[in-house]
Amino acid sequence: MRVTTRIGKDLTTGVFWPLQADLGQDITGRNKPADVSRTTTWFVNEPSEVPFSERYQFQGDPRHCPYVDLRHNGDPPPADTPFADGYNWYWGDFKDGDDSTVAVNAWGDGFEDGRLKDGWSGNYCEFDVPRYFFWFRSAIIESRCLFTTLTGFSFYYMCMGGEVGYDAANGPSFKYGVPINKMVWDGTDSPTAETQLNSSGSNGNGKGAKIIGADYDQDGVRWWAKPWLGEIYPDHLYTTYWRWPEDGEPTVTELRGNLPTEQKDSAYPFQWVSRGYICQNGSAWCGDGRPLGTTFNFSIRRTQTQGCTAMFNSVEANGKMFRHIFKSYGSLGTLQPPGQQLADRYYFPLPTETKISRPWKLDGTSSKPDNWNYYPYTERNLSEIPYRMTDPDTGAQIVQKFYNHNDDPNNLVGSGIVRTMAPAIDVDGNGKTDNLEKCGYIVVNGIDKTTETGTAFIGKYSLLTLIHSFLVCGHPNLEDANISYRITQLPRVEIKTPTLETELDDPSGAEPVQWNVKWLRWDSKPYTDEFADTFSQDESKLNYVLMYSRDNADTWQYMSDDTNVLPPDGPGLGYHYNDPHMIADAVNGDEVYMWDIGNDTKFPEGSYLIRVECYREGCPLHYSYHMEKIFISR
Questions:
Q1: Looking at 151-155, 239-243, 263-267, 595-599, which range is the least confident one?
Q2: Fewer beta carbons below 10 Å: N end or C end of the chain?
């Protein structure tokens, strides 16, 4: 249900777009956009029907979270409150500096003291880092897809948008941050450098990530932005600085819709302020008082060493966890046999040894993230649906290694595939079922930074490892009697007839279109070296879409009814899963469709393209196809 709150009775207000501006800069289209606020709430029978983005607060002050079902309700909470403790745990601990007074009780009984922190895991990320990873991990697992971390220390940075920053480790060009003008801090028109990623490189009003604030005293009130509430300008300055002119008002010389940066001695100097400067007694941005428990640390945009651990949320049998290991720049890893396949099968030369400074292992022993022992993260390899899962599988698993690391070649992985799983569910009391067990695959590459390895190599290597891993993860070894963790592979489709050599001499009726599939990759080779020559999948789970083109692929028509192929967007190809023109695989072997091309008005003499697209049942994302050119003579 969407709730709209409006200021006034004019039902035409609240329009931000479209903006229409002629050459004279007269502005029309907008109509008091700030006078309307819209929010959405959910009333459903099943929690799984609530979009993930609406289940938790993720960011902002938990005291502003309006939903009762996100409040604390025991640990673990009852099964009928799946979103309990869904407020942002890391905005602050509700303690005033060194004062031991806890403000949790003052704000009601909806928060749990142990969960409230001044930033996540000591890394000063003031948003719900593990919940974002929860979301990301669930998406990978539920869709059984692959993801690559490109290179380096995976999941080390997490930005919320609008940050300015650079890590000196990635090169000398911006060693001290991104060049920028100091006007946004103190009104001084002079250069400086800024990085909000970490706590050491920032300039101006404090370190780390910044908030827009104003150090003026307007009736005893200071102001700072609260974007999670839509508070992005002071209400009493709307007319002066923010609003757009209304119809009939003089045209402004500047487009509004933003706050000005002024000199320090002006009436309203808006500045970029570190979160650590906000709400300190006596600070220019807070004044002489603040709500109980409102003292902030600065914030940064690095999860640092514990981000990868939180992302995988997995443990080995001995309680150890996924972790990257710091090694010196230029230290080496050695190519493994699966890595040699990358070189051989894709004609991409790979060095026997390459620089790897961020290898990883599944049984790291470093400190755990501070969400580690709190529900729901105590259920390892957690996936969000279904709820209240029991008997969790523990530990991610290494599927293949492309590179190891020479310092500890048996345990450290320089580049490889990790399988991460959802907990097993016994739905009928008789064992696992394959329709609820889910897994995803992440290609983790710990090769050196761009200044050591080069952007071209990193880009190509990341793409090839991702493509190859798609094939690797289709191997039958990734299944057992109870469950299949395999990625269903795409078959190679080949049109047998008609081809350019087929004589279609004045056809008077239907002609056979014949094709088959083989369980090979696109070039008729096995998917990987590990696949047996006899490998196959169930053809009955394949579906096809047949089409043709009269104009060398500018447009396409379906063979079944000659209607135009008109997808919602895109080129018109590969959008046809569950299309009404789709036909099911009929036999185990060659497929035949009788295509009526007897009408010489519809099919005059000339060249045509024909195309067969093949889709896997339950897999709308990927498809394979084959095209042939034919000639009809009249």
A1: 263-267
A2: N
Q: Prior bond to 376 cis, omega within 30? A: yes
Q: Residues with Cβ < 8 Å from 49, sequence gap 6 or more?
A: 42
Alpha carbons 341 and 361: distance in angstroms, whole number: 22
Residue 358: name the closest of 379, 338, 329 by CA.
329
Q: What is the pLDDT of residues 372-416, one digit of tens each?
A: 988 888 876 554 433 333 333 445 788 999 999 999 999 999 999
d(CA 341, CA 456): 20
Residue 231 has pLDDT above 90, yes or no: no
More confident residue, 79 or 120: 120
Q: In sequence order, which residues have a C-beta less than 8 Å from that of residue 339 and are 6 or more positions away?
A: 350, 401, 402, 403, 415
> For the whole prediction, is pTM greater than 0.90?
no
Mean per-residue pLDDT over the chain, rounded: 82
Q: What's the CA dihedral at 447, 449, 450, 456 to 10 degrees? A: 10
Task: Pick the closest to residue 538 from 467, 633, 617, 462 (CA basis).
Answer: 617
Q: How far apart are CA 595 and CA 511, in angstroms?
A: 5
Cβ atoms 146, 442 nearer than 8 A: yes
Is the model's pLDDT at 522 over the cut of 80? Answer: yes
Alpha-carbon separation of residue 566 from 98, 431, 574, 580 (angstroms): 65, 46, 11, 13
Query: In 3-state terms, what secondary structure has residue 215?
Result: strand
Give the tokens for residue 536.
């196959």
CA distance 414 to 409: 9
Distance CA 141, CA 615 (A): 21
Question: Torsion-angle region of residue 519: left (phi > 0), alpha (psi -120 to 50) or beta?
Answer: beta
2: helix, coil or strand? Answer: strand
Beta strand pairing call for 146-148 and 178-181: unpaired
Angle at which helix 337-346 crosses helix 455-472, to 10 degrees, equals: 100
Please tell me the distance from the alpha carbon of residue 409 to that of residue 333, in angstroms, as a whole number: 8
DSSP state of 335: B
- First-residue to last-residue Cα distance in the chain: 62
Tokens of 60: 């902002």
* Range list of β-strands (E), 279-412: 321-324, 332-334, 353-355, 360-364, 397-404
How crowded is the C-beta side of 128, counted as CA atoms within 13 Å?
22
Give me Rg for the CA atoms of the chain: 30
Residue 442: beta bridge partners? 147, 418
Categorize the per-residue pLDDT at 257 as very low, low, confident or very high, splitting at 50, 70 and 90.
low
What are the tens digits of pLDDT across the range 554-569? 889 999 999 998 764 4
Residues 6+ apart with CB under 8 A from 559: 513, 546, 547, 548, 593, 595, 610
320 and 364 Cβ atoms separated by less than 8 Å: yes
Tokens representing residue 123 in the block: 């890394």
Angle at 389 between CA 386 and CA 392, to 5 degrees: 125
Nearest to 586 by CA among 510, 515, 533: 515
Cβ atoms of residues 81 and 73 within 8 Å? yes
